[in-house]
Hints:
- The structure is a single chain.
- The protein is mainly alpha-helical.
- It is built from 19 helices and four strands.
- It has two domains: 2-319, no CATH class; 324-418.
- It has helices spanning 2-17, 24-36, 50-60, 70-90, 96-101, 105-110, 117-137, 140-156, 163-174, 180-201, 203-212, 221-224, 226-230, 250-265, 278-288, 293-322, 324-335, 347-354, 368-375; strands at 341-344, 377-383, 402-408, 413-418.
- The mean pLDDT is 91.
Amino acid sequence: MKKEIIILAVILIILSLVKPVKIWDEYVYLLNGRYFSGEKLYFEEIRPPVLPLSVSVFYFLHLGFLANFLPAFFLALLSVSLFFYSKDFLKEKAAYPVLLLFSFPVVLLYGTRLLTDVPSAAFFIASLLFMKEHTKNNKETPLYLSFFFASLTALTRYPSGLVYPIIICLYFLFVKKVNWKILLLSQLFFILPILVWLNFIGLTAITNALIWSGLPSDGLYYIYNIPYILGFTILLLPFSSGYKYEKKDLWYLIPLITMLSFFQIFQHKEFRFMIQILPFLSIFLIKSLKFKEQTLTIILLAFIVINFVAVLYSFYQNQTTCNYDTVIGEFTDYFSTKNGTILTNFMPLCSYYLGRSCPVLSYLPEWLSLRISELNASYIAVSNAYSHPPYASNLSYFSNYSMDKLINGTCEQIFIYSIPR
């Protein structure tokens, strides 16, 4: 067991040092965090609050650079939660689901990013862990903590609020005697944090978030992306015939089946969403495999090394091929001596690197002049890497303005226009 823990510690340390090129959502969560700390640069109200609030603590303490290590912290939290959650099912093999989790490429691809998938998975497992503890000893505190972590799960990633009906279902399946008074009181630990957030942001913002997340995609999306999700662990499936069902297995089978069904029905699909499901799949697979512990350790470690090298290489290729640092450097240099409002279609990136608010272009091209007038805008900056608003990719809509600079990157072009007074 000790060697597995050492391996996990080494993995987490290495992952904390990996810094891939940031993607759109990461900039949004960083800027929402800065908003909560008092820097009103940019804010997206459709984003849930837990991750930005975690970021805001570091910016409030003027230690913003430490926010880059939050992904490693949440990976550690997920690992610890999964380890203790697995002990009841796997005894001395409890560390193996965590090792298997790091064998999935999607975890290595997105576990180093400041996104909600890993934190919500960590809180999800913690909620189940405390509910399982309550049904064993009937103590009140674990029940309160279970619903509190369920609330954190929902406020980290809205669709993950499905944890609530799941823990309710498991409660009635496994509790020895229902204490209605304590059960009703425990609901406050779930409801109050959500009510506080609703009072701040309003129900419309959450509704818009779920509507936006309902963008359609291919029903076979997850089938197509199995190599990115499971990687070489697919090779273990033929050896997973040793599974023997016990009633306690419902603690991971119900979340696995429920969340898998939900994400398949949910129209908007990204393979990183599967991170929510993989901890439960890991427990199921480890319980099904017949390998000896030493053999299993070697196999999983080999998978981790292969995936880690592949992911690092993809990060390196993306950085060197697309020369993002050069593009961002030219962009910030250009505006370092220029004041005035910038209308753009890459708002969070512009706001993050320039340290000032960069409003979005008008939704329709015929409203652009009015938008410029309302905000007294001095510049328009358009990137061909982003498709919103749709007309931004058609430069003819900006022909009335003077193009001051074209930044040519390998994977992106930025067109900067000045607006005459």
